[in-house]
Write a structure and sequence with these properties.
The chain contains 9 helices and 4 strands, in the order αααααααβαβββα. The chain is of the alpha+beta class and about 210 residues long. Strands 2-1-3-4 form a 4-stranded mixed beta sheet, sandwiched between helices. The N and C termini lie far apart (about 50 Å).
Length: about 210
């Protein structure tokens, strides 16, 4: 059933009879979010509209976050799917979104999947970063890093990617990790936090001899 729905989604996106085969993104994102994002990537790639769709989605994602009424309307489960679909079609036309972007929004509304909108957009961003040869890297620390520390960290992280790839570094602060850092780079994950070490040692101490 899921495969049939995905095929229908791709057909609804595509405005061309040429090349009905899926265009695979450079990186695979799993789950419902990944399936919708992959369908959009395939359709937009055929129409040479990848960059246009990415700009549209970033703009729409920001608009939803900034407009509480729009956010509530999208998340409201009592509003009929058809009404949401038509409303999003009008919004897309008003703010001049690409037809593929508009089709995605309407399809999510029709399928009752607007709750996944943010996840789908983020999945598409990951695909587009990979398309440009960028590697997404997130570093979590207990305290803010200064510019010198960020520069040194980015230099070290660059040694883990290919010469034709670039690092897209984002940093977050989470005091609960106490110290050290948690690093996610591409599909790799390393927990070097003090909190993680304390947990490990606590488990060792608690284990009966």
């Amino acid at each position: 059933m899921a495969t049939n729905n995905l095929s229908m989604l791709v057909r609804s996106f595509s405005t061309s009879n040429i090349a009905s085969q899926m265009v695979k993104p450079p990186v695979q994102v799993f789950g419902i979010d990944g399936r919708y994002a992959t369908a959009l990537y395939s359709a937009a790639s055929k129409q040479k509209a990848l960059e246009s769709c990415e700009k549209d989605l970033v703009k729409f994602q920001s608009a939803v976050k900034a407009d509480s009424k729009l956010n509530e309307y999208i998340k409201n489960p009592t509003i009929k799917r058809g009404l949401k679909s038509e409303a999003l079609k009008q919004i897309a036309s008003k703010i001049s979104l690409n037809s593929q972007t508009s089709n995605l929004l309407q399809t999510l509304a029709d399928n009752g999947r607007l709750k996944n909108l943010d996840g789908v957009i983020n999945a598409f961003k990951i695909m587009m970063s990979a398309h440009r040869g960028e590697v997404i890297c997130e570093v979590i620390t207990a305290k803010d890093l200064d510019s010198a520390q960020k520069s040194k960290l980015e230099s070290v992280l660059k040694s883990f990617v290919k010469s034709n790839e670039s690092i897209q570094l984002s940093t977050k602060v989470d005091p609960s990790i106490i110290g050290g850092m948690i690093v996610s780079i591409g599909d790799k994950y390393v927990d070097m936090s003090v909190a993680s070490k304390i947990k490990k040692y606590t488990e060792l101490i608690s284990t009966p001899v």
